[in-house]
Structure formats: C-alpha cells, structure tokens
Amino acid sequence: MDWYVYERGSSPIRRVTRKRGFWSKRFWLIILAALVIMGLLWGAFALWNINRAATTNPMNQADAGIILGMSMWGDEPSPGLQERLDYGLKLYQAGKFSHIIVTGGLDQADLQYTEAQGMRNYLVKQGVPDSAIYMENKATSTYENLLFSKEIMNREGLSTAIIITHTYHGRRAQEIADELGYNNPELGLTDSQVLSMARHKTREVLAYTKWKLQQLFL
Prior knowledge:
Elements: H1 2-8, H2 12-51, E1 64-68, E2 72-73, E3 76-77, H3 79-93, E4 99-103, H4 115-125, E5 133-136, H5 142-156, E6 161-166, H6 167-179, E7 186-190, H7 197-217
C-alpha cells in the first residue's frame, strides 16, 4: 500500500516544485504586463510632447536658418524635403535670416547628390544667392545635423539660428539644439501635406525615445 502511494500519489517535493513554477510564471507575467503598461504610458507622453512643438512666436531675426535634411528622390528633394525648403525660403524672403545652412549627407551610395547638395541646388533655382548658403554634407541623423551645423556657425561667426523642419520633428530638434549649447534656438515648423503622419509620428516616438535614452545613459 505504501509503495502504491509513493508511485501514484503527489509527493510533497512535486507539490512544492509545482507551486514554485506557478509563482515563477506569475511573477514574469506581472513583470511583462508592467513593462507593457509603462511602454504605453511612455508612448502616450512622448506623442503628447511631440505634438506640443510649435513655431517660435514671436520669431526674432537670426543669423542663420538651418534647414534639416530629409530624403532625396534621385537628384531632386523628396516632396517632404521640398516642404521644409519652401518654408525656409519663405522665412528667408521675409528677412528672418541672411544665411541658410542646409544639412544632410548621402542617402544612398549610388545617388549623385547629398541631401545638402540637393537642397542647395533647389534654393539656388528659387533665387537664393549661392553665397548665402552653407552646405553640411556629412550628417546622418538629427543630432549630427545640428552638431555639424553648429560647427559651421562657429566657423563663420554666426551666433543665432532658426531651426527649420516639420512640426512632428520640432520637439526633438529643439531639445538636441539645447543640449548642444545653441544660443536661444528658435523653431520654424511647417505641417506636411504629403507625409503620412501616422507613419512619421510613430517613427518619431521611437526616435524621441532613443534620444531620451542617449541623454540618460550617455
């Protein structure tokens, strides 16, 4: 009888092991649920913060307008990049700055022009003197856009800037400029009529999250 209970019954060791397994799984499920909730809350906060970005008002006259790069379509600026260029051109023609910095490196190895070169060509066609344009051809990120543009400003004796980009991109650009020590950087932001905001704001939430992690740990 004792032998049968030992073989077929549930031993105390097995019961303890099963209980530990149950609590271990429950613990990790709680951790996973907490991480998901925290991620959703952070995403909502980041999106709210991104949506708060606005053009500086009133906008003061600055030494330079920095137009942040975006993808090229062959030898021409993409429609989204044209929106930034047209808005920067509008501010330039309104006398908000006398110099323009166009910033952005090579999108693909087989392209003829960097983003900055394509932007410069577009602006010259619109009547901006070539002498008023500084090109920054190396940047591959928003951080590098603003870092290398600041180097141009330091070299050329330009002390103030208006950063020109799309509205969804403005918050991160502003924070990076502040981190890099820009002198009261202003924003010139334009809404897009050609870009998918669902796609670009989702990507911006991820990019903004990466930026905040870099700030925290680096």
